[in-house]
């Protein structure tokens, strides 16, 4: 079947695009649109054209899969120009999302109407590029410079009502979009047509505006190139004739399309879309997820319960006694209150979230839950006692999950009846915010349980990554190697602050040492001490020396750095220099780029080991873990992509 078909409703032709899944603008679709203009211009019975899409969405953009290859005719800017230049006016009828090239096609149409709930936007910066088919040039001519800057430099789509207020769409409709758009087209024929977007005047907001935007966009973009280049395109569009600005935009687009950042962001785009439905799950049956239980209302339990409530699941929270339960419920309340304070929830929504939580100290309250997630102390005895209770009280088919960070899930599940329903679900703190979910099956986990873990991730809006069993699974194992490598640099004389600055320069929000000061050095210390007590050979780390000197991080007024009371700004510490003096030797000087290369290389090397052992199933899974769990800069693509691209 052709991707573009034409029907007639009297004097209005309806052009339907049908290119599943998201009507992306591959070559066949571009050609189909190109040909449709000629066909309809030549048809004397047609006076106007409605462009509408089949399936879940309007055209969602250029076909990202074509970006690694040479452009093929007809090029999208020419298609958009041709639609705009058509003898008969075109009306874009938008449902779902009109994004990137899809919105550019709509801008080529003389009118845009949208279904209530639809959205439009230019998300190209998220792929490391700028709009490449007049998005930066036509948008300011339709909605003004400020709106265009906002749209292209943030990449955030706007909903139909807001788009109408901004002048991006002409009408918002409910009900039958096709009928509404055809009626709109007929009515439009009764009045003089507006100017095509390319011919509309645009006001220059002036030098101060551009200077302010430069500063603001640079600050938000950190190391990303595309947002500032997109801003430059809008400025050009406002200050130069249409054709000149279009050429400038196209050159910028083609330049960025081949860049490392764009390749990295495309890699992440596809990795994120592949992650929720890995092929190896096959068609394993999904277990129903209607109700959930959480054991432990501490940092993780409260966050997990909040995530479950955000997804609409009723939650039973179990704690060990009444006092701990009250604390757990208060933790949960604090999360929702925070949501209200930040404007993410209305007070009514927060109250409804809380109303869906019932607290108990009696496991009998879990008799009919479909899924229980354990988040109690990281001690094997405590966890095993919890699962013994769960086995006694939960339905035999309920999924039972542990949030353990380091313990062996096999040991936690030992002796459990129906071990096929047991699985590790490793959330990251804060669990209602962080996107990553490591899914850790044991050898006995049933395929349905594994598939249900992935279904849970989808329901919670998380990025699931399957991990095999080893100490720290994927993420914490790489973190350990990263920290050890950072310490090795300090041992050879690199300043602590230089290491942190190097990683910030690479794109992390924080370096490894300041991050430890924030989270506390004692957790990892206690874990190492536990292993030592169990007879394992664990070499002494610099972190151990600091904790023994009473330096556990910001909470004790200092860790790797000193902190003035009430101030989170790290200050180099004479005391730390003293504590570490005996173990530091002078090594070769390293600049920041070399430091970052070294540490990212160590991450990738651990990633390789993890792959070789089958702990991770693909390099892109490791990249997703680092990006969504550990702050690796998205535009670098993750340690595996970054290292592979560097060769
Ligand atoms: N190109 C190629 N494939 C795409 C695609 C695109 N632009 N957008 C989505 N897909 C694919 C996905 O990879 C996925 O494939 P799979 O089923 O084989 O895994 C499938 O379409 C469905 O995607 P989602 O799971 O994301 O579907 P949702 O329904 O959740 O979301 C969407 C739909 C909101 C349209 C979302 O897919 C999306 O945001 N897509 C990207 C939009 C975008 O970035 N457009 C700009 C592209 S750049 C551009 O247009 C340049 C131009 O200026 C020249
Ligand atoms: P926490 O100490 O904040 O909370 C643990 C909670 O469990 C406490 O509220 C405690 O009262 C409760 N509890 C203890 N024994 C119980 C029992 N027998 N029955 C019911 N409740 C009981 O600990 P946190 O940080 O929330 O960690 C919980 C688990 O999550 C641990 O396994 C930890 O390794 C894991 N984890 C922690 C992360 C973190 O960043 N804190 C990240 C990912 C996993």
TrEMBL record:
Domain annotation 3-hydroxyacyl-CoA dehydrogenase C-terminal: ranges: 472-563
Database matches in Pfam families: 3HCDH, 3HCDH_N, ECH_1
Catalysed conversion reaction: a (3S)-3-hydroxyacyl-CoA + NAD(+) = a 3-oxoacyl-CoA + NADH + H(+)
An example molecular function term from Gene Ontology annotations: isomerase activity
Keywords, in A-Z order: Fatty acid metabolism, Isomerase, Lipid degradation, Lipid metabolism, Lyase, Multifunctional enzyme, NAD, Oxidoreductase, Peroxisome
Gene3D superfamilies: 1.10.1040.50, 2-enoyl-CoA Hydratase, Chain A, domain 1, NAD(P)-binding Rossmann-like Domain
Keyword ATP-binding: no
Subcellular location: Peroxisome
The keyword Oxidoreductase appears for this protein: yes
InterPro entries in UniProt: 3-OHacyl-CoA_DH_NAD-bd, 3HC_DH_C, 6-PGluconate_DH-like_C_sf, ClpP/crotonase-like_dom_sf, Enoyl-CoA_hydra/iso, NAD(P)-bd_dom_sf
Pathway: Lipid metabolism; fatty acid beta-oxidation
SUPFAM superfamilies xrefs: 6-phosphogluconate dehydrogenase C-terminal domain-like, ClpP/crotonase, NAD(P)-binding Rossmann-fold domains
Entry coiled-coil feature ranges: none
Annotated ranges, domain 3-hydroxyacyl-CoA dehydrogenase NAD binding: 292-467
GO term, biological process aspect, one: fatty acid beta-oxidation
Subunit structure: Monomer.
The protein's name in its UniProt record: 3-hydroxyacyl-CoA dehydrogenase
């Amino acid at each position: 079947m052709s991707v573009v078909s034409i029907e007639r409703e009297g004097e209005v032709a309806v052009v339907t695009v049908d290119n599943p899944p998201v009507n992306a603008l591959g070559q066949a679709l571009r050609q189909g649109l190109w040909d449709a203009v000629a066909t309809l211009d030549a048809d004397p019975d047609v006076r106007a054209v409605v462009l509408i899409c089949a399936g879940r969405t309007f055209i969602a953009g250029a076909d990202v899969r074509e970006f690694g290859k040479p452009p093929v005719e007809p090029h999208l800017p020419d298609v958009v120009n041709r639609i705009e230049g058509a003898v008969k006016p075109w009306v874009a009828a938008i449902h779902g999302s009109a994004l990137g090239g899809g919105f550019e096609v709509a801008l080529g149409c003389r009118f845009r109407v949208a279904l209530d709930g639809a959205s439009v936007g230019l998300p190209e910066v998220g792929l490391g590029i700028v709009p490449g088919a007049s998005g930066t040039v036509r948008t300011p001519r339709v909605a003004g410079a400020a709106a265009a800057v906002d749209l292209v430099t943030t990449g955030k789509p706007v909903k139909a009502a807001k788009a109408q207020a901004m002048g991006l769409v002409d009408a918002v409709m409910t009900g039958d979009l096709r009928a509404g758009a055809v009626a709109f087209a007929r009515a439009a024929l009764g009045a003089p047509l507006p100017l095509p977007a390319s011919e509309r005047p645009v006001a220059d907001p002036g030098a101060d505006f551009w200077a302010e935007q430069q500063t603001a966009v640079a600050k938000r973009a950190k190391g990303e190139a595309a947002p500032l280049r997109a801003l430059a395109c809008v400025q050009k569009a406002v200050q130069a004739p249409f054709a000149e600005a279009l050429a400038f935009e196209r050159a910028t687009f083609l330049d960025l399309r081949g860049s490392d950042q764009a390749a990295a962001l495309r890699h992440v785009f596809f990795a994120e879309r592949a992650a929720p439905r890995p092929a190896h799950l096959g068609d394993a049956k999904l277990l129903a997820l209607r109700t959930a239980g959480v054991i432990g209302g501490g940092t993780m339990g409260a966050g997990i319960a909040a995530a479950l409530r955000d997804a609409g699941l009723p939650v039973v929270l179990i704690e060990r006694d009444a006092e701990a339960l009250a604390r757990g419920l208060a933790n949960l309340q604090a999360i929702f209150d925070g949501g209200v304070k930040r404007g993410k929830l209305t007070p009514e929504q927060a109250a409804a979230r809380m109303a869906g939580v019932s607290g108990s100290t009696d496991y009998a309250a879990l008799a009919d839950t479909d899924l229980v997630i354990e988040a109690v102390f990281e001690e094997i005895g405590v966890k095993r006692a919890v699962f013994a209770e769960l086995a006694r009280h939960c339905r035999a088919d309920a999924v039972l999950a542990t949030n353990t960070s380091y313990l062996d899930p096999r040991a936690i599940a030992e002796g459990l009846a129906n071990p096929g329903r047991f699985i590790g679900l490793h959330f990251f703190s804060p669990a209602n915010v962080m996107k990553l979910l490591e899914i850790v099956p044991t050898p006995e986990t049933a395929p349905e349980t594994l598939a249900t873990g992935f279904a849970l991730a989808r329901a919670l809006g998380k990025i699931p990554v399957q991990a095999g069993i080893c100490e720290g699974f994927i993420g914490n194992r790489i973190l350990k190697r990263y920290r050890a490598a950072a310490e090795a640099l300090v041992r050879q004389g690199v300043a602590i602050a230089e290491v942190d600055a190097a990683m910030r320069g690479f794109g992390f929000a924080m370096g490894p040492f300041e991050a430890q000061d924030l989270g506390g050095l004692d957790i990892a210390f206690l874990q190492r001490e536990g292993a030592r007590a169990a007879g394992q050979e664990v070499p002494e780390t610099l972190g151990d020396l600091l904790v023994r000197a009473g330096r556990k991080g910001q909470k004790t007024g200092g860790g790797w750095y000193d902190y003035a009371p009430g101030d989170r700004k790290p200050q180099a510490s004479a005391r730390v220099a003293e504590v570490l003096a005996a173990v530091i030797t002078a090594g070769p000087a390293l600049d920041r780029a070399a430091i970052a290369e070294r540490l990212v290389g160590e991450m990738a090397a651990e990633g390789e080991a993890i792959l070789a052992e089958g702990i991770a199933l693909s390099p892109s899974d490791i990249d997703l873990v680092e990006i969504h769990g550990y702050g690796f800069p998205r535009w670098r693509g993750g340690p595996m992509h970054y290292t592979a691209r560097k060769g």
